[in-house]
Amino acid sequence: METNHPGYKANELDILRLAVENTTEAFVTIDETHRILFFNKAAEDLFGFKKKEVIGRDLDILLGKTCREGHRQAIERYLNGEKKQLPHHEKEFMITNRGGEAIPVTFSFSVAKFNGRHYFTAIIRDMSDIKICHDRLLKSERLAALGQLVAEIVHEIRNPLVLIGGFTRQLKRTISDDKSSKKIDIILKEVQRLENLLAELKELYLPKDLNISVFDVNELLRELYVLAKADCKNRNIKIQFESDSDEAFIEGDREKIKQVFLNLIKNAVEALENGGMLRIESKRNGAFVEVLVSDDGPGIPEEHLGKVFSPFFTTKKYGTGLGLSISKRIIDQHKGYSISLDTNKRRGTTFKVTIPLAKKASA
Ligand code: ADP
Ligand code: MG
After folding, report:
1. Pick the CATH number of 10-126 from 1.25.40.340, 3.30.450.20, 1.10.8.10, 3.20.20.70
2. Is the CB of 350 under 6 A from ligand 1?
3. 107-161 per-position pLDDT tens digit
4. pTM for this structure?
5. Angle at 329 between CA 328 and CA 330, to 5 degrees
6. Which one of 324, 343, 344, 350 would you pick to mutate in the ligand 1 pocket, going by the greatest count of ligand atoms within 8 A of its CB?
7. Does residue 62 line the site of ligand 1, with CB under 6 A?
């Protein structure tokens, strides 16, 4: 709105009109017959209607079906003097914009009497951003509380569990009949499973600070390859390790990065329950080294893709659903690292971890 004509001096009303026009709050003014008289820019943005589409129209155009009648009655009651005041509330409310999108807002109302007629203005504030912030804060508070709870539960369960495991192992030595021995083995297996779950929960909710060093990732992968090879032998899985260079020095927490690769290898092994091929590869790519863990298993269905990195998502009978979420967390904690996956029913699944080469080595 241009008012800077030479010789024209803006008066109070012009200034006010511009201020209202340019504020971030939506202003919608109606007259006594429910017709829209004023609709500022913020109102255009909020409701998705252009000013020229709504001026002169009934306010119903902006209101949801369910509140049209109530609104009209409230105005009438006010005009009949039944109600002295319109609600001045700052209550949170949902409106639906032209596109059908629900938007959280707060309202306040103002009534102006002019030449014996009433004009009602709603001042509406879009709360989406504030709500998102608020939700995030709540979430992080909840997470902190959850972390505390998990720490206490882990602590309470772990001690008796260690006792159960220890005594069961002692008992096992004194038992000679087959049936009892099998039962004892099941107890020991279950105890181990619970211990692993506790360790994963602790890792997820109480991550420790990183212990950064520079190390050769290829050497770590060779170590894991030897470990995995022994495991794959009895499972009809062929395993390969390939690297395109002898060394690839990276900077990170070796133990944690090892855990990431272990999780990926474990998932690959579990995906190959009917046997198959598992490949671990290390490839240099510019200033990065890419570590790929691939299997030619069944792949991940598209509808699961968005969930595999979420805590507790599992398709396995005895899975915890924590492996990938912990891995993602560790990767996110490391600067410049990233993890991605490529999956396909025919080819299987490849997880790729991309890691910056340490300065010394990439030079
Ligand atoms: P868990 O292994 O305990 O189920 P993860 O977080 O490690 O938990 O994995 C979550 C889910 O992602 C698995 O249950 C599985 O459905 C899917 N997934 C992960 N890796 C693979 C893979 N290599 N092939 C097929 N599915 C996989
Ligand atoms: Mg897993």
Report:
1. 3.30.450.20
2. no
3. 888 888 888 899 999 999 988 887 777 877 777 777 777 778 888 888 889 989 9
4. 0.61
5. 90
6. 324
7. no
Q: What fold is seen in the domain 131-205?
A: Helix Hairpins (1.10.287)
CATH fit for domain 212-362, picks 3.30.565.10, 1.10.8.60, 3.30.420.10, 3.20.190.10:
3.30.565.10
Q: Which of 139-148, 220-229, 329-338 has the lowest mean pLDDT?
A: 139-148
Q: What value does the CA radius of gyration of the chain take, rounded to a whole number of Å?
A: 32
Q: What is the pLDDT of residue 90?
A: 59
**Percent of the chain topping pLDDT 90:** 59
